Amino acid sequence: MVACSRPESMDRGESPLPAGDDHRPEVAAGAGSCLAFCLGDTELALPLADVRETGQLAAVAPLPNLPGWIRGILHRRGEILSVVDLAAFLGLPTSQCAGPGQPYLLFRQPDFACCLAVARVGAVVHPEDRESVAPEAEPSGSARLAGLISGMCRSAGRDIPLLDSELLATALRCDNPRPGPERRAATDGSRGEGQ
Questions:
Q1: Measured between alpha carbons, how far is 163 from 129 in angstroms, rounded to an integer?
Q2: What is the pLDDT of residues 132-176, one digit of tens each?
Q3: For a 10 Å CB count at each end of the chain, is N or C smaller?
Q4: Which strands form 112-117's sheet, in the order they lie side by side?
Q5: Where do runs of H (alpha helix) occur along the chain?
């Protein structure tokens, strides 16, 4: 397991990303940059181009009959987004319930977006400050996590597992299937045509 360290900028109360409603992280930080974040004691990173914003969660509306790692939904800039407890999804220890004040990453892929509740948002790792290295061993604690790692970022002498954004989005979609017409008919007791 990779120990999570706190960037100096966070100790000074600074955000790792520049402020602004129209902030485009990939433009401000450069292509190839990553954003480090912590899930308990585990430090991970995502490509910054796939993180649209960071912030603190407002009220999360819980919904019934969803996997335990989906904490509910929230309304953000005209969009309804699922709030995913990323530690719970990855099978890592989680001590916090996603709720008001918890840090989040707005994660976006084509045709998919959600808020990833995390323990702490870290620093931006720029390409010139980063070495991509192959993982020497699988990260401990979760087979699901191991299957989502695309490489390692080396920053300030630490190796940080880099999540593959496409694989993460696919895993989140596949583990939370939306009911299609056949499933709705089977679960709500309605009858299909010709029955």
A1: 18
A2: 555 554 555 578 888 899 888 877 878 889 999 999 999 998 865
A3: C
A4: 51-56, 103-109, 112-117, 79-85, 70-76
A5: 8-11, 25-29, 86-90, 143-146, 165-174, 181-188
DSSP conformation class of 61: B
Positions of the chain with pLDDT lower than 70, given as ranges: 1-31, 95-99, 127-141, 175-195
What is the Cα–Cα distance from 32 to 34, expressed in whole angstroms? 7
Say how many C-beta atoms besides its own lie within 10 A of residue 32's C-beta: 15
pTM here? Answer: 0.73
End-to-end CA distance of the chain: 55
Which residue, 38, 63, 182, is CA-closest to 123?
38
CA angle 178, 179, 181 (to 5 degrees): 135
Q: Can you tell me the distance from the alpha carbon of 189 to that of 164, in angstroms, rounded to the nearest whole number?
A: 39
45, 161 Cβ separation under 8 angstroms: yes
The DSSP letter of residue 95 is -
Contacts by residues 149-153 (CB-CB < 8 Å, ≥ 24 positions apart): 153/34, 153/36, 153/45, 153/125
Contacts of 64 (CB under 8 A, 6+ apart): none
CATH number 2.40.50.180 given to 8-177: yes
Domain boundaries, the chain: 8-177
